[in-house]
What does this fold into?
Amino acid sequence: IRIVEQIYGCMEKWLNYLDSKTDGADIITEEEPGSWLLGDWSLPVNMDVLMKENILPPSLVNTFFYGMCARQLGNMAQALGRKADSIRFRKQADRIAASFHKKFFDEERGTYVRGLYGTSAFALVLGAVPAEEKARVVNNLVEHVRITC
It folds into this structure.
């Protein structure tokens, strides 16, 4: 708990910084022009190709991490007994998740951004998938993994 106490203020500042990088609807577009902000460095493709072909939108990855930061800060606040902060940050995380769904969900396919490169996994981990869509999204993600592996 001591470590959480030590980094709590820094985490809150980081979340405030991320708040300033949204489009006004809880979607992070970029930190600086042309940057990826948090990015995702684990994909088995050249990042230049990724950006050029718009395979995985940086805003999806960035918004995922933004929502996860808010959720974790809510958990940290709860561990520290800061009930009001915990409620505030968890509500923020829920709002970000809802915005993520609205922006990236492909209703026709039941996936996020064409279901490529685990985009639906980001949505599931973030808690962005509404209950009524969860089975369809999971099934489509599993099918995509089967096809590509």
